[in-house]
Task: inverse folding
């Protein structure tokens, strides 16, 4: 029996298994640098290493011991529940969009893995390095599992190549907390919403990977809990001017998801999911969860909310269309599309937020 990344105890083991496997076309997609594509991040690791988790010690120890018990060890690999996938029979547009979805998900998972692994490598603070080691382990398994699915379609992301060649964006630690916390919680909300939908409509499950989403999103849920605790150690992170940053990250993360999902109409049609309704459901869940730590939530029921998300989506379509053309009119169209997207984003940012009283303990359970 060959050793699988799902059984790995550490991130190093999991990546070594994956690295032996391939180098391929999907890597080029994962290398793409657009505003919407998943990025790789780097930060001030010394500042993060200096975090003192004593103010949240009881919840911290609880969370770490749950992660150490490793309930999902061995889960992220194909077994008898993995139905045969006929990639050749799949509608070509659906196939293209689904591969795009898998590559983009794999890149996001791996982006988390690289950041967490680096933090573990550079740190000396035992609490912090232990947490990041555990989270990197999970993300390596997730990325490895998506790559297993991609390999069946004849493509896979070369993770080793990405680590070396993809551009790294520097974010200050506090921005890493906001962005990563949100991406973990929205990841949970996305996966559980699709999982519950397909539980009700198994006939729509056109690929077996969706069966794994429940345990998957529980990992993401724990990762989000960890970032909530990290932010809880320093009240300044969620007050004063930082509330504006939180609003910015909430708006940017939600808007990015909305625009990106609307790029995959065939994928959502196959699942019988309306991407706008799905978006609102995921935003509502994420907002409810983020009340554990953020002093505001976005007013997603404000009439300007959906109107401007639609405008951003349209601007993105216009931009894509103009990118395929050349000449002066295409340049003008591109500028106009970027301008429209910027105006719509500003309009979203200026919708008054709803204030929220943050509870004494951040602790939550995955209830959806
Ligand atoms: Fe993950
Ligand atoms: Fe995660």
Result:
């Amino acid at each position: 029996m060959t050793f699988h990344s799902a059984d790995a105890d550490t991130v190093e083991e999991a990546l070594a298994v994956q690295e032996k496997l391939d180098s391929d076309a999907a890597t080029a997609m994962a290398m793409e640098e657009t505003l919407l594509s998943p990025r790789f991040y780097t930060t001030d690791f010394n500042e993060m290493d200096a975090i003192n988790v004593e103010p949240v010690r009881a919840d911290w120890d609880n969370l770490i011991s749950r992660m150490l018990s490793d309930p999902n060890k061995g889960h992220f690999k194909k077994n008898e529940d993995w139905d045969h996938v006929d990639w050749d029979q799949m509608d070509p547009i659906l196939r293209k969009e689904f591969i795009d979805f898998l590559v983009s998900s794999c890149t996001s998972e791996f982006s988390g893995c690289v950041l967490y692994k680096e933090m573990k490598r550079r740190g000396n603070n035992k609490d912090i390095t232990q947490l990041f080691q555990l989270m990197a382990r999970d993300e390596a398994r997730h990325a490895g599992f998506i790559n297993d699915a991609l390999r069946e379609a004849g493509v896979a992301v070369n993770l080793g190549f990405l680590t070396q060649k993809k551009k790294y964006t520097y974010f200050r630690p506090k921005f890493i907390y906001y962005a990563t916390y949100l991406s973990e919680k929205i990841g949970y909300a996305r996966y559980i919403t699709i999982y519950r939908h397909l539980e009700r409509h198994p006939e729509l499950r056109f690929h077996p990977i969706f069966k794994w989403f429940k345990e998957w999103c529980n990992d993401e849920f724990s990762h989000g809990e960890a970032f909530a605790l990290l932010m809880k150690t320093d009240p300044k992170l969620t007050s004063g001017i930082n509330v504006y940053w939180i609003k910015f990250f909430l708006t940017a993360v939600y808007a990015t998801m909305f625009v990106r999902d609307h790029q995959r109409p065939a994928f959502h049609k196959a699942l019988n999911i309306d991407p706008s309704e799905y978006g609102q459901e995921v935003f509502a869940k994420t907002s409810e969860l983020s009340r554990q730590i953020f002093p505001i939530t976005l007013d997603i029921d404000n009439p300007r909310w959906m109107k401007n998300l639609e405008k951003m989506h349209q601007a993105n379509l216009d931009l894509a269309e103009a990118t395929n053309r050349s000449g002066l009119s295409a340049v003008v169209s591109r500028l106009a599309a970027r301008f429209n997207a910027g105006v719509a984003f500003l309009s979203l940012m200026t919708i008054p937020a709803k204030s929220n009283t943050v509870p004494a303990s951040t602790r939550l359970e995955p209830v959806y």
Observations:
- Residues 5-302 form a domain with the Ribonucleotide Reductase, subunit A fold (CATH 1.10.620).
